[in-house]
From TrEMBL:
Residues 150-215 form the HTH luxR-type domain. The modification 4-aspartylphosphate is found at residue 55. Signal peptide: none annotated. It comes from Plantactinospora soyae. The keyword Disulfide bond does not apply. This is DNA-binding NarL/FixJ family response regulator. The lineage of its organism: Bacteria, Bacillati, Actinomycetota, Actinomycetes, Micromonosporales. GO terms for molecular function: DNA binding. Keywords: DNA-binding, Phosphoprotein, Transcription, Transcription regulation. GO terms for biological process: phosphorelay signal transduction system; regulation of DNA-templated transcription. Gene3D superfamilies: 3.40.50.2300.
Amino acid sequence: MSIRVLLVDDQELIRIGLRLFLDTQDGIDVVGEAQDGAEAVARAAELRPDVVVMDVRMPVLDGVAATARLTAPGRDHTPRVLILTTFDLDEYVYGALRAGAAGFLLKDAPRDRLLEAIRVVDAGDALLSPTVTRRLIQEFAARPSVAVRPSPLLGTLTPREREVLVLVARGLTNGEIAEKLVVTEATVKSHLGRVLAKVGARDRVQLVIFAYANGVAAADLDGR
């Protein structure tokens, strides 16, 4: 089955370029386009794409608000949203992830990286480009106002699970976490699955948001 993709960008040339590339790829079916967030929501309901490749700054309805609508609970169809933008240090980054985006990629990323990102988010995983992850972490660390009263869900985590949460929030992959904790990657996946379940996070992106919104990892940023 091909991955059904909806392209959303207010610049026609960007949409044309993305379509020309994706239409040549096996397993990808570009089912439609939209030029703003409002049209994206309407087209998603009509076309039922698997993945929406979403720009951020658009007229009528921006990508953050559109993402929130597309991923809202109770929708008949909920696509995975991949944010694709030039604004890596923008406030929109945090807003898009909180709104339910499954991934975040910069427009200057290689074409193969975009293809990988679409496949990753379609498979139910989450993706943040390494540079975005680290800059996002730095942004959170520099904004103590983001931290609020810690969630009681933190108390349900074991010390090792909290370690895994911190390392995920620092942008490490499962393999890197396994190496750091001197355990197998399968063990890391097991811990990660329990952390996701305990804090009610859907994926890795939400874990990053949860960790920094609760002030878990900022103090450990330069730690072990």
